[in-house]
Automatic annotation (TrEMBL):
<dbReference type="GO" id="GO:0051538">
    <property type="term" value="F:3 iron, 4 sulfur cluster binding"/>
</dbReference>
<dbReference type="Pfam" id="PF12800">
    <property type="entry name" value="Fer4_4"/>
</dbReference>
<dbReference type="Pfam" id="PF11953">
    <property type="entry name" value="DUF3470"/>
</dbReference>
<keyword id="KW-0411">Iron-sulfur</keyword>
<keyword id="KW-0408">Iron</keyword>
<dbReference type="GO" id="GO:0009055">
    <property type="term" value="F:electron transfer activity"/>
</dbReference>
<keyword id="KW-0479">Metal-binding</keyword>
<dbReference type="Pfam" id="PF00037">
    <property type="entry name" value="Fer4"/>
</dbReference>
<dbReference type="InterPro" id="IPR050294">
    <property type="entry name" value="RnfB_subfamily"/>
</dbReference>
<protein>
    <recommendedName>
        <fullName>Ferredoxin</fullName>
    </recommendedName>
</protein>
<dbReference type="InterPro" id="IPR022569">
    <property type="entry name" value="Fd_C"/>
</dbReference>
<keyword id="KW-0813">Transport</keyword>
<dbReference type="InterPro" id="IPR017900">
    <property type="entry name" value="4Fe4S_Fe_S_CS"/>
</dbReference>
<keyword id="KW-0003">3Fe-4S</keyword>
<dbReference type="InterPro" id="IPR054829">
    <property type="entry name" value="FdxA"/>
</dbReference>
<comment type="function">
    <text>Ferredoxins are iron-sulfur proteins that transfer electrons in a wide variety of metabolic reactions.</text>
</comment>
<dbReference type="InterPro" id="IPR000813">
    <property type="entry name" value="7Fe_ferredoxin"/>
</dbReference>
Length: 112
């Protein structure tokens, strides 16, 4: 089992999530994070830390799409373990629907 980041994360980067992960298994894209499904130990401590409610257990309905995305990008995006500044539109776009279709970028972030 693993936890999964969905598209509510896009354009956030509050990164409260990465600070609490005991195994440092978050990976950073240009405007979204993913959790490495093979590294996550399923502790659940990151879920309540996310202000966008973007982190879900993979037992939830409808997370398959985001699990597949994590499998695709966790091996190519850089590791992120420390909090950084949120993106400029993080608050304004927090509850915007359809973020993946509008804003997803496959480009890597800068990591730590
Ligand atoms: S706090 Fe939540 S929405 Fe923000 S970067 Fe972390 S997982 Fe993404
Ligand atoms: S559930 Fe635990 S191990 Fe998995 S990403 Fe969240 S904090 Fe890290």
């Amino acid at each position: 089992m693993t936890y999964v980041v969905n598209d509510k994360c896009i354009k956030c980067k509050f990164t409260d999530c990465v600070e609490v992960c005991p195994v440092d298994c978050f990976y950073e894209g240009e405007n979204m994070l993913v959790i490495h499904p093979d590294e996550c130990i399923d502790c659940g401590v990151c879920e309540p830390e996310c202000p966008a409610d973007a982190i879900k257990p993979d037992t939830d309905q409808g997370v398959e799409r985001w699990l597949e995305l994590a499998r695709q990008y966790a091996d190519v995006w850089p590791n992120i373990t420390a909090k950084k500044d949120a993106l400029p539109d993080a608050e304004a776009l927090r509850d915007e629907p359809g973020k993946f279709e509008k804003y997803f970028s496959p480009e890597p972030g800068s990591g730590d």
